[in-house]
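Assess this:
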Amino acid sequence: MKKPSRREFLKNSLITSGFLGLSACSQNYSTAVSSGKHGSTGLATKGYGPLLSDPNGRLKLPKGFSYKVISERGARMDDGQIVPPAHDGMATFPGPDGLTLIVRNHEVSPSQEDKVEYLKSSEWKGIGDSKRYDSGANGTHCTGGTTTLVFDTRTQELKRHYLSLTGTIRNCSGGVTPWGSWITCEEDVNRADDRLQKDHGYNFEVPANYEIGLTDPVPLKDMGRFNHEAVSVDPASGIVYQTEDRPDGLIYRFIPHVRGHLAKGGRLQALVIRGAPSSDTRNWEEIDLPSFPVKQSIEVEWIDIDDPTAPNDDLRYKGFENGAARFARGEGMFYGNGEIYFACTNGGPKKFGQVFRYRPSAFEGMSQESANPGKLELFIESQDLELLKACDNLTVAPWGDIVICEDDNESSAIVGITTDGKMYKIGHVQVESEVAGACFSPDGTTLFVNIQNSPGETLAITGPWRDRIA
């Protein structure tokens, strides 16, 4: 008799009563998957009303809202450095005297000096090797990293900005920590060769500092080496959750040995759907498996990941073989409303995008977790390009709505999602560019976003945020 393939085994198990030894909970999962239909996974709501055309041709906003360009590519900063290109994920922190600190990523690939003007500056050349994670080799420079901005929301003025991390590659997104730092993530897995001195694919921690200065570039190797996108920290447990920007990526969590001290190491794990190992949550039509259910809470468990530095960039393959669930390009991630929200850019039958939410166990990472597991829900699965597409960076607004940046270079929007799943447009970029980095000031008055391309700008958006139409 021919041994069934993994796909045949999973499909038959989900359609019938489930795997051998299923608990009552995982039988419920099988029932949910077997009966789950895509259906309506998000309705439109008025939000703040229709978007109005911008006479500057940059960003459409509702009536009563306005923006200000506060930092742009190529400008001279207070440390003498030049603002790098490719503004991406960022976060805000409370600063001294009511100021707002912003740490901003720059998703820049290795560059040749003769192609990038700012690399020729004496300030750039004056950075010592100890302050660069990787100085590159043979004329190649690692020009990713972060900049830090100090902004006054009361006057809507930028007070200072400076380079805060350098020598990394493609710093895409990341996440804010409860102890006042930004975890910046390399979306790159290049290894040391004749162009690079070090392996890449790591996270780095950048304190949110008012004072000008470069952060010591320490790779957080135990958090895994893979195509990182974003992280989110559960303030209750100190556990860090991570997305992987691959079509077949995993969702990870990192349990630090010492809470708040990620550089001291910890344990890396991957998410498993309880009772259904090696599940596929992508719901792609070409994958002959039952659909992962929408709007249903599913219990999960976590498996350890061996050799997190993964010299062969194979954590997702090994994890899936050991039972981890597969996701469609995990992107933005943020903690809010007691949950971890994360976006999958091209998930769903039409590949328009998915938004999941994970509610951690009250005993997350402890021995009691097995009896009280965390739960995963596919919250939104877009079937309408006009509502949501290519969801990327996200944040949670002070009043609980999710705010998502679309990564569509032709027509990107800022989308709001209410806690009951209704969607509305906050803004729409009028240039061909990704919009990225949405984050609110600590006082809730200002939404910061990046227009990544042409020329590359950070905007501060203000308006009647509390007047959203129900």
